[in-house]
Amino acid sequence: MRQTNSAPLWKRDGVRSVLASLLSILIGLVGGSLIILIVALTSKNLNLHSAWEAIRLVFLGLFSTGRDAAGGLTFGFNPTSVGNMLFRATPLILTGLSVAVAFKTGLFNIGAPGQYLAGTAATLFVALEIPTTVVPAWIVWILAFLAGMLAGAVWGSIPGMLKALLNINEVIACIMTNWIAANLVTWVFDISNLKNVVENTKSGYIYKTSFNGVQTPKLGLDKLFEGSQVNGGILVAILLAVVVYIILTRTTFGYELKACGANRHAARYAGIRDKRSIVLSMAIAGSLSGAAASLYYLSGNTEFFWSTYQSLPATGFNGIAVALLAVNNPIAVVFAGIFMSMLDIVGLQMTNLTAYNEYITDVIIAVIVYLAAFSLVIKSWLAGGHRAKPAHPAGGGADAPDPNAIPTDAPGEVPAAPGEAPAEGKEAREK
């Protein structure tokens, strides 16, 4: 007979996970608003009116359409902002998936920036070196996308093999591979012919893939979100999120990954090849980070600054925040990535329309991520923090056992007489 979950809806684990994330977001937004208010009260050049405008943008910045003739803020559907939000969300969704997949296997993939760079290099080389006069542009696009995923998978498998074979902490290995990737990619592009020499002011950048006629199709999204950079990449990212969800929740392979993450030694005892699971998990995570870079630069309207040794791409690290906020759920990663991208748009609106700048949104993101890291504490608080009650009360209530009752060894068996051992135990002692 099927057992039903009698717990209240808001005390169920899945619901509490969602509520914990929403509460983190709300506290982050309120915290950012308080900082805006404090800055206004302590600055001679700002006032409460400017603070109120900035606070409104924190919550409604995605729908800001500018200012009217009287200088007041106006709000409505802004197709450009919404489209740009979806474009920026594409790599965040994929790097968030990358971190989430590794988390499911008990690994912390802090190497997403290096995998992102590996995917960037492979994508740009394939997209710009194969002439579209010989090979159709759509085939070059597919090859470039697959090359980016493959390069990311190879780079991600390195810390995976170090963890599986030598038990080297994956965080340390990922940090090292991040900077190796940064310097290697810099050197590879430095000796290449892909530096932009056509536009004299952009010699520090690599050509856009559109220079070779390779770019992600718009699929009609440019008409829906006019004036934005959005393209079909967001649909590819959502599709990959669904595929990852199916793999993790509906396949034996996904079960093995999660079992290995829960307890590697118990999984090995159960016959699961834990070393293979670790390597494949990091390879899949790396391929998703590589796909993030591919879709970002295959858009045809973005440029890559090749002197990357000075810093690592923030998109890789932001994927950690997305995964934490989504509680490592692949479907929730889509919404978390879109939300983080929305905060980027809000920051731009604040910079353009108020005396504040986009760093306020960085503070909001930091607060949200900090609280998301304590999601278990928040979930426990939402559940009331109560402990499980003992099976039988200490007092003589209705559920208390009768001390005079004769115990039964099993259903359908005759209980042993007082002072006499059960039949099986008696025969064992006689033997």
Structural class: mainly alpha
Shape verdict: globular
Count the DSSP helices.
16
What is the level 1 CATH name of the largest domain? Mainly Alpha
Q: What's the SSE pattern?
A: HHEEHHHHEHHHHHEHHHHH
Estimated share of beta-strand residues: under 5%
Strand order of the largest sheet: 1-2
Please bin the fraction of helical residues. Answer: 55-70%
Report on the biggest sheet: 2 strands, antiparallel
Radius of gyration: 28 Å
Low-pLDDT runs of 5+ residues are: 392-401, 403-431
The total domain count is 2
Q: How many strand elements? A: 4
Overall CATH architecture of the largest domain: Orthogonal Bundle
The name of the CATH topology of the largest domain is ABC transporter involved in vitamin B12 uptake, BtuC
What does this structure look like?
The protein has 431 residues and is an all-alpha fold. It has two domains: 10-77 and 355-384; 81-339, ABC transporter involved in vitamin B12 uptake, BtuC. Helix content is 62%, strand content 3%. The chain has 16 helices and four strands. The protein has helices spanning 13-42, 48-60, 79-104, 112-129, 137-166, 170-190, 221-224, 233-250, 252-262, 264-269, 274-297, 314-325, 330-353, 359-372, 375-382, 423-430; strands at 64-67, 73-75, 205-206, 304-305. The strands form two sheets. It has a two-stranded antiparallel sheet. Strands 3-4 form a two-stranded antiparallel ribbon. A hairpin with a 5-residue loop joins strand 1 (64-67) and strand 2. Helix 4 runs parallel beside helix 6 (170-190). The protein is globular.
